[in-house]
Amino acid sequence: MGWGDMRRRLRDAGPAWSYDETYTAAAVCAGQLPAAGLIWWVVSSTGDDYGVGYGGAFGLACLVLFAPLYLPFLGLLHTVLHIAPAALLARAAGRRVPGPEWVRHLTGAALVASAWAALADAVGAGGFAATAVGLTALGVLPVLALAYVRRRGRAPGRAWGCWGVWFRAGGAAVALFAVAFGGLLAADRMGLIDAYEPPVLSAAQLAGTWRGEDGAVLRLDPGGRAGLSRLPERSGSSEAWADGTFAVCDGTGTWSLDREGRADPYPEDGPGERDGVVVRPGGGCGEDTYWTIGGTERRPELFVLFGDPDAGELHILTRD
């Protein structure tokens, strides 16, 4: 099918994407975001947050408080980047693909979600599978709502109009949020949601080579010797530590396992009293630095946060 045939099919089918469909999709997209955000927040809290951020409860309260200001814009953005392109794909397919239009629209939403997921995976912003599934799920309600509103609008005097759609979307948003909250609470009571527990590693398990994305290398020898290459380490000034500046060290040093968290610079505000590795660089480069143990038993990590715990610079090392 050529471009001329596609344009003819779209023209014969009516407007490619109407104003009514725009505000309907935007309202539904915005209405589902509070519940989706709550689910994402709970799921993400089961992993290691590295002590970064303003605190889950405080951040969630701010999001809820200012929701009426930003949700309409996010709903419109989701419509323009996902729901509307999926509708154009569905209508371009026309009668070549059997089934009702809403089925083709859902298929188009999955295809567009996969395209955005591939882009996110390419730039390192998220895994392909998780992003594709999440975006596809966010397209289901808007597509079904559009099909329902179209069918309802065909009956004389039953069209809701712009404000009617947004009013009902607001009520649905509250209901969805309540259902998501209740479901997550029940899942937590049933033990289906596990809180994050950092791995407990011995000195022998920590021995090996750890690397960072910025080229940093930390080699931990079994005898307590350490090899450093472009490794971020705490600078000599306490003010510089608070500002987030650090030294980049090369050479050798020593290391030890700290199970009490005594060397942790943020024993209360940051990751807490967790096991960590204290690296003491030699040659006068930097000072003792507490690398907190994170990740999982199968994929352990070492991380350090320079600067403000709420907005500092995070460095993560993974083992070869």
Q: Let me know the average pLDDT.
A: 83
Largest sheet: 8 strands, antiparallel, barrel
- Gyration radius, in Å: 26 Å
Low-confidence stretches: 10-14
Shape estimate: elongated
Spatial separation of the terminal alpha carbons: 51 Å
How many runs of DSSP E, i.e. beta strands? 8
Task: Give the tally of structural domains.
Answer: 2
Question: SSE order, as H and E?
Answer: HHHHHHHHEEEHEEEEE
* Helical segment count: 9
Strand order of the largest sheet: 1-2-3-4-5-6-7-8
Strand residues, percent: 15-25%
Helix/strand-derived category reads alpha+beta
Helix share, percent: 40-55%
The oligomeric status of these chains comes to single chain
Account of the protein in words:
The protein has two domains: 3-189, no CATH class; 203-319, no CATH class. 50% of the residues lie in helices and 18% in strands. The protein contains nine helices and eight strands. It has helices spanning 3-12, 19-45, 56-65, 67-93, 101-122, 128-153, 161-189, 203-206, 238-243; strands spanning 208-212, 217-220, 225-234, 246-258, 276-281, 289-295, 300-306, 313-319. It has an eight-stranded antiparallel beta barrel. Strand 2 and strand 3 form a beta hairpin. The two termini are 51 Å apart.
